[in-house]
Amino acid sequence: MIKGIMCFMRIKNKEMEAENITQDSKATRFWASVGLKVKEGFKMHQKSGQLAKGPDSWRNVTKHCLVQVARTETLGRWLGLSGTLIDEMKLGAFLHDFDKKQEMIAIRQVNRTGASPLAAARAEYQKGEDLLRNAGFSSSVRRLASSAGGDAPQLIETQRILDKEALSDEDMAYLIAHYVDDCSIGSDWVKPSKAEEDGNIIEYRAKGNKANPIHERISQEITAELSRYPEFGGMNNVDAASLVSHQIEQRLAQRIKERTGEDIDPLTIPELVDQKIREAIEKYPETS
Questions:
Q1: CA dihedral 63, 65, 66, 71 (to 10 degrees)
Q2: How far is CA 90 from CA 9, 53, 118, 145, 215, in A?
Q3: How many CA atoms lie within 13 A of 59 on its CB side?
């Protein structure tokens, strides 16, 4: 398992070079250490077929999940959450898309027939939930894994938490798990917020979702469900997801200021998190 993870972690070398991190071994060893922290999750990615090699490989989704593990841990530590809770968050982040391949295959199949792609996605979600439960993952890890995404249940639950005056650490963990996925496009580093015309990576991702025909069909169904909840003001689900994520940014910035005294622009949180990861890679030892 360790050897396999080490080989898989060679995923980020070109990106590290683009960031002027020239020590290939540092990047490889850093991402290997991240992977080892969630090694039990690799079995689920393997069972779903996402680690298979070849022209139909979905290993990029596993890379995406791995980057979210690092971002989740960075935010959790920044906010002062417990090590136990951070461990659950990391595992939830790694498992949130462990069966993405099966979900997308199902959606594409029904999309050609005119059937509901949302129904297909939810059916695959339930299969994934059952697989995680049967594999012995705790209810807290499964809840964190299911927090990501722009479906109505996730958006409604996230808004319910945000409506609280005071947040528990478990509430904050859920918000982080949801937020990190909204800040992650593939395994790329986020773009600096100043480079975006109307916000940060949240808007950038929303534009991409709105331009995706499959996302559009799913969005129409979810938006109809969200119309029953006045807090979303008749928004489509993509805009509702952006609203929720920006509210999370506000709560994160507030918590950071209370804990560390740092007064940060909430819109810059994604790039600040990634900068902390870059710094960790630069400082990572080349040899043990």
A1: 130
A2: 16, 25, 27, 9, 27
A3: 13
The structural domain count of the chain equals: 1
Contact 214, 107 (CB under 8 A): yes
Question: In which domain, by residue range, is 154 found?
Answer: 2-283
Q: Answer yes or no: are the C-beta atoms of 80 and 172 closer than 8 Å.
A: no
Element spanning 185, H or E: none
197 in any annotated domain: yes
Domain-embedded: residue 77: yes
Classify residue 288: in a domain, yes or no. Answer: no
Question: b or e along 128-163 (b: 16 or more beta carbons within 10 Å of the residue's beta carbon)?
Answer: beebbeeeebeebbbbbbbbbbbbbebbbbbbebbe
CA separation for the pair 258, 256 (Å, rounded): 5
Q: Return the minimum-mean-pLDDT range out of 21-25, 245-249, 259-263.
A: 21-25
What's the CA gap between 159 and 153, in Å, rounded? Answer: 10
pLDDT in tens, 78-111: 999 999 999 999 999 999 999 999 999 999 999 8
- Residue whose token pair is 């070079």: 17
